[in-house]
UniProtKB/TrEMBL annotation:
It comes from Castellaniella daejeonensis. It holds the Pfam family Peptidase_M20. This is M20 aminoacylase family protein. Keywords: Hydrolase. Signal peptide: none annotated. SUPFAM superfamilies: Bacterial exopeptidase dimerisation domain, Zn-dependent exopeptidases. Residues 204-299 form the Peptidase M20 dimerisation domain. Gene3D superfamilies: 3.30.70.360, Zn peptidases.
Length: 402
């Protein structure tokens, strides 16, 4: 598949389309959809109500719909332009919420205890719906748009499920694009960069099995807490003494669980944590050193130490050509001075990375004012709805100009 412009320049081609305008009626509709999704959040692979509403709206606009894609709740919409054949662009939004309380006080706070749209996926879904509505009403482009409404981004399993189900076989795309709200850049700005924009994510669990005993007789024990404490200390050297200083990586042990009584030496301890890396090389190196240190600690302390790799996703890596296309569309909508390139990458992770592993594309940020994602009072900034939809539509119009 082409990495930048899959079409040869056409003689006498028309001028690059100007920025799309999202009218007030559609903006109000997007806000209503977004707040409805916020009130009815659903966890990954359980987005049944959300997916049904998305499919209903797409069909009402004459867009071909494929439901239940990827074995769960994925929704794929397909729209062909009326100006003839051309490239195919994929536009993606994530639909799932987080397993956490919604502490907001607004009228559209979650009605489900312990589930909240605290990351902005309600907004992403509304943005892509707005873009789909606008393009369906005015399909003045040459080519095809594939609208990808993805489940289960938060557990980092939804995009992979779509790819493994044959997303790019059934709906071949020349390029694919996605976005996310980000308060690390200012309101009214878009941020993008070539290369890694978000980190890989690897979750791990380490079980240490020793010998328990009475706390007053430690010589009869093989204390897994002592072994675990030594291992936690050793792990701190993985980044500082193994990863290239010009690369970036984070290793955090976030759980250390052992024991049930204050006067009993436990026979088992469990460590859990995460690794974040911006390159595949650093990702592979850190995971290898983790395993080595577990093996060495087991030999040194005489405990059994088992390393379990629970989950892995790659870094989100943008290609140069699609980045330029995002910049051009965002500049048309927001103004040239409002595009931040290169934006500072985040050590958060995104399973959009799996889509970029199989198709050229770019992931970009929309700046917003307010709380950081995953805060219990987080609520998506509705001023981003028209901006995001306009950028998506402008991107389509510019890339698929006849």
């Amino acid at each position: 598949m082409a990495a930048s412009d899959p079409r040869p320049a056409a003689a006498g081609a028309t001028a690059v389309p100007a920025a799309a305008h999202i009218d007030d009626d559609l903006t109000q509709a997007m806000q209503a959809w977004r707040r409805d999704f916020h009130r009815h959040p659903e966890l990954g692979h359980q987005e049944h109500r959300t997916a049904a509403r998305v499919a209903e709206l797409l069909r009402s606009w004459g867009i071909a719909v494929h439901e239940g894609y990827g074995g769960s709740t994925g929704v794929i919409g397909v729209l062909d332009g009326r100006l003839g054949t051309g490239p195919t662009l994929g536009l993606r939004a994530d639909m799932d919420a987080l397993p956490m309380p919604d502490a907001g006080t607004h009228g559209h706070r979650s009605i489900h205890d312990g589930i909240a749209h605290a990351c902005g996926h309600d907004g992403h879904t509304a943005i892509l719906l707005g873009a789909a509505c606008h393009l369906a009403a005015k399909p003045d482009f040459a080519g095809r748009v594939v609208f990808i409404f993805q489940p289960a981004e938060e557990p980092l399993t939804g995009a992979r499920a779509l790819v493994e189900a044959g997303l790019f076989r059934d709906f071949p795309c020349d390029e694919v694009y996605g976005l996310h709200n980000n308060n690390c850049i200012g309101p009214g700005q878009a941020g993008v960069r070539t290369g890694a924009i978000l980190s890989a994510c690897d979750l791990f669990e380490i079980e240490i099995r020793g010998v328990g005993s009475h706390a007053a007789m430690p010589h009869r024990a093989n204390d897994p807490i002592v072994t675990g404490a030594a291992l936690v200390q050793s792990l701190q050297s993985v980044i500082s003494r193994n990863v290239n200083p010009f690369d970036t990586a984070v290793l955090s042990v976030c759980q250390f669980q052992a024991g049930s009584a204050i006067n009993v030496i436990a026979d088992r301890a469990v460590l859990r944590g995460t690794v974040r890396t911006l390159s595949r090389e650093a990702q592979s190196l850190v995971l290898s050193r983790l395993r080595d240190l577990c093996d060495g600690t087991a030999r040194s302390y005489g405990c059994e130490v088992e390393f379990r790799h629970l989950l892995s996703s790659p870094p989100t890596v943008n290609q140069a050509g699609p980045v330029e296309h995002v910049k051009r569309a965002a500049a048309a909508v927001l103004g040239a001075g409002q595009v931040v390139d290169p934006v500072t990458p985040l050590m958060a992770s995104e399973d959009f990375a799996y889509l970029l592993d199989h198709c050229p594309g770019a992931y970009f940020f929309l700046g917003h004012d307010g709380l950081t994602c995953h805060h219990p009072e987080f609520d998506f900034d509705d001023t981003l709805l028209a901006q995001g939809a306009a950028i998506f539509v402008t991107l389509v119009q510019q890339r698929l100009a006849a």
